[in-house]
Fold these 2 entries.
Entry 1:
Amino acid sequence: MSAEVEKKKVVLAYSGGLDTSCILVWLLENGYDVVTFLADVGQSEDFEAARAKAAILGASKMVIQDVKTEFVEEFIWPSIRANGLYEDRYPMGTALARPCIARAMIKVAKEEGAKYVAHGATGKGNDQIRFELSAYALHSTIEVISPWRLPEFYTRFKGRNDLFEYAKEKGIPLPVTQKDPWSIDANLMHISYESGILEDPQTHAPKKLYVMTTHPEDAPDVPTVLEIEFQKGLPVKVVNKDDGTTKTKALDLFIYCNEIGGKHGVGRIDIVENRFIGMKSRGIYETPGGTILLSAHMDLEVFTLDRELRKIKRKLDAEFAEQVYRGFWFSPEAEYTRRCIALSQDHVDGTVTVKVYKGGVYILGRASPHSLYNAELVSMNVQGDYEPTDAGGFIKINALRIREYQRLRASETSGK
Ligand code: ARG
């Protein structure tokens, strides 16, 4: 290629779907040498079909990487420790996967000597932010191409019909199945459903939407009892108390919790959330295994952590959730938060027994070598190392402030 100018190389986050296929061809048309990248984060996907499609469309190379284990160990696990819930409800399946995917993709960009990375996220969502913040953090000179934010792209492709027309014209294979009337993001931790008919927050999700979980009302009448063991706040073992199935490897353990949670219809939520960019959006998520593990971890924390330590830790949990949701995984504040949270987990060891049944996770009991629970101290039947008369003074001193407050309020109103 002596006479030719060397082409600009871009690594494109490619799914094999219509959008990213059109973006791939559009990049080629604009003179790029395109390497496609597809991360296996546990979505059910025909990876080889995607590889073949990328080759047909003209990608110079397709890189498919299995990042499932690192997704669990380095992203989902810290979130279990942090009781990771955005706005108190969303377990952040998508938000946790993005930095994992971006990190793998940036590695490929470096290996390939690519100056650009591209993605198919829309200009309205959180994913563009998560993807790009991670990319810039890990590769200081990388340039990002985000077609859905480029006027020459979004004025040309105003909707799905334009993409279809373009695909037909360029010989891009059209999707064989009818697209669901909502947008899906799937990985090992969750599946999310947004937009389309779900944009009206009043519209109920149709029954056929859910993929990972059984409808709670159709779930088995017999519960499954699991014993979940934690070390330093991380799940290390799950035992099915009914049939003895035991899982200890992080990925296997997580997949097994998904299986049990899915079977019993656990972890569905339908919420309106606040996107970082400033708008509210409606989402439906199913996070079966994550929901089981979060419930068990929260229980063990109360059992093993000092009350005041836990209070501070809960604030860090909220910070963690916001940092993850907003895409700041690789920021100094997020590193600091994760390290502090890890430190709080030194004694979060033990087992929690849960019953998984018809969409619910019911705690049956817990045990820990480091519990701060003192059965004798709390017992109604024994005195223990406790002087009941002390409580009277404790209550009176605590009452001092509120007694004064109410006395003054009363005198103010009676004076009117
Ligand atoms: N609203 C959720 C989040 O921001 C889910 C996003 C799903 N992403 C998608 N590309 N469909 O984490």
Entry 2:
Amino acid sequence: MRHALGIDIGGSGIKGAIVDLKKGEFSTDRLRIPTPQPATPEAVADVVGQIAKHFSEELGDGPIGITIPAIVQHGITRSAANIDPTWIDAEAEKIFEERLGRDITLVNDADAAGVAEVRWGAAKGHPGLVIVTTLGTGIGSALIHKGELIPNSELGHLEIDGHDAESRAAASAREREGLDFDVWATERLQRYYETVEFLFSPDLLVVGGGVSKKADKFLPLLKLRTEIVPAELRNAAGIVGAAWLAADRLKNPDVLIKK
Ligand code: BGC
């Protein structure tokens, strides 16, 4: 199997592309459609349907992987920190499958990005414990040990000093509060990453999300014993990771995960 379709559902846009699974790169242009408002499962499924249709010729009967910024347990979305509350306990995978008339694989957005970084990006081939965090509206996390993803880690919601961590350390908190990069790094990210380091002792921390383009403004200010590096696949990571996870599931079907 050489190609799969990856679709990344975000707060403002839903993006898709065909992914070359050998190279971990797009083999078509990316299509972006604005996220419908309100972004209910049915409304989002319509847009996902349009994207799948657009790529149907290139995809053939190849796999489809979809990301969402929520806990995804056995196809059911279990949280909605920064998305429409109607996703909580929605049979999301089933809703997409009914809309598309075929099987899909639904995964958490940060898990998808993390898998892509470990296969093709900043943590390529890493043999230890890698934690990939994405700093955006929220904080997403992927916990990957010896190449194996432990899904739905949700380390953005660690409670630190009485706060939901992402409410203070996400990129959106920096913007909302007008913090300079150095203040954000030393007063927010330092506390966040030292807590993650203490609790999990990772071998490598990877920082993704749009703000990672400016990593030189904040990562060098952090004092940690763990190596911390910017993500490399940037905004392709979610699409690439989702495509790979969908293909991987076909090779290794998991009766628990696939109902
Ligand atoms: C959500 C996660 C998501 C992250 C990044 C958090 O608020 O709880 O599921 O991965 O944001 O989008």
